[in-house]
Structure prediction request, 640 residues.
Amino acid sequence: MKISLETLSKDLLAGNRRALARAISVVEDGGSDASDLVKSLFSYTGRAHLVGITGSPGVGKSTLVDALITEIRKSGLKVGVLAVDPSSPFTGGAILGDRIRMQGHTLDKSVFIRSMANHNQAGGLGLATYDAVRMLEAAEFDVILIETVGVGQSELAIAQTADTTILVLMPGSGDDIQAIKSGIMEIGDIFVVNKGDLPGANKSASEITSSLELSSFANDWRPPVIVAVSETGQGIDSLWSSLQEHFKFLKESGVLLNRRKAKVQAELAELVAARARENLKNSMESSDSVQQLLEQILDKKVDPHTAAEGLIQDLFRARD
Amino acid sequence: MKISLETLSKDLLAGNRRALARAISVVEDGGSDASDLVKSLFSYTGRAHLVGITGSPGVGKSTLVDALITEIRKSGLKVGVLAVDPSSPFTGGAILGDRIRMQGHTLDKSVFIRSMANHNQAGGLGLATYDAVRMLEAAEFDVILIETVGVGQSELAIAQTADTTILVLMPGSGDDIQAIKSGIMEIGDIFVVNKGDLPGANKSASEITSSLELSSFANDWRPPVIVAVSETGQGIDSLWSSLQEHFKFLKESGVLLNRRKAKVQAELAELVAARARENLKNSMESSDSVQQLLEQILDKKVDPHTAAEGLIQDLFRARD
Prediction:
């Protein structure tokens, strides 16, 4: 028997972990159930510190997350983790989360780890991440780590649903240089050179530091560069201090409010665009004039760009 | 001095390679120049055979493409290659194309290889791929290979801009089993077990074949499973025969027209959605009522889903 969304909300607010898992599945699936659940729980959100963790595959993000959970738990705070993989139906998103889950937080009721993979349309996982974070917030998790598998466009978008973004690099990978070149540095609030026991770790760290010194910043925060060895826990205490310091900075400077406003604006635009696309797909199937337009394109009488311009005008005029 | 789009079109149609390279850059950048260029060249498109090549990283897609170019060139046809990487700003899309370019087709004027990486928004690369293919078609390339780096959602979408999709697997990777499980098999018109000299190649091939025998197909094409060794060229002649056979099948059965219609429909929906999103982002910045809505969301008085529903209604009523 299907339990009602109302019961689900109540159970989640009461701290029931199964309800939380269930609620995240509901928002992952999207649709009106997802919207209804978000509506009923929205007033309980907004207090957690959202931390995005991103970097190339192989730099040790999962191990870093594991060590960070242990560190944060020392302070008694509740930690939620979303391991998000927008990319591959082959590798799946489950791998990350499972690996962490096995490493000893299973019995800790103040830790909740969840993997999310992309089984929906483009844009869908980003929107689902916003809502999954909300479920964790409503369940009173204090720090929510959003880990992405790689540093692709969709992963960067997901990492940027966070308040604080940690960019993880490793020595000798050339990622540091690439990061500097590609302008990806801008997204990092905190830099971690992981696997800091490998040769070249300090060199990497100082290169990043110098490149940051040359950068201009939109606000008064100077991103720290932390050398860490996640396996042994070295540097993880500094990372946690930096995270707390950054959250404090965000709140006191008013940057938090601005960032969250920008995020809400981006989410709204995506929500509306996703719905517009859906409306459009439905109306295309049933519209004779759209079907005629398609024929004309196939006959090379009209090109798709001209056709799209016409459709836009119709679309924005049509409903009254 | 900037040359005009008109000159660019003419030069491209006259077979000028630099103009072709330039035109692809224009459509990659998007905007009104891209639209204008597509409009002026659209009537020259639609004749080429578009072949998508996808599969996990490491299965040897680039080497396969290289061998396939050599094979196709024996028949005198012109081959265009788009190596598309929607995922990573770190690895970049250039790697693939560069690797192929070095392998001996550089001096062959009937081969054109181009890498495209995702430096724009989500969805943007898919749309740019449609248009880049059009530039190659207008320049009279007969076969256009569209290679993607991985098998993520965006890569699958890109591979499916093709008429024929080749799914590349390798023995012992577990990808064959994963592919069967994940339902990804459905997208393959031709299967290649690459690195066919590795142990287990024939076993992989027969597992795929059995799983295909259990599948139902939307049309009368039974996907062949080809064991190939791209390094030595083994199996590449069968692959090329299968490609030609599939193209013939598509044309004679009428499936080609249906697929192209579906593709145009998908492209139109994406074009309109992309433009709707852009309009929305612009109007949000300047709209007092949207700014008030954002404040209400931040104050937890309205949730984003309810807000989006309201905006949708306004949007579809607003312009007259």
User: Anything to note?
Assistant: Residues 90-98 of chain A have pLDDT under 50 and may be disordered. Chain A has two domains: 45-253, 267-318.
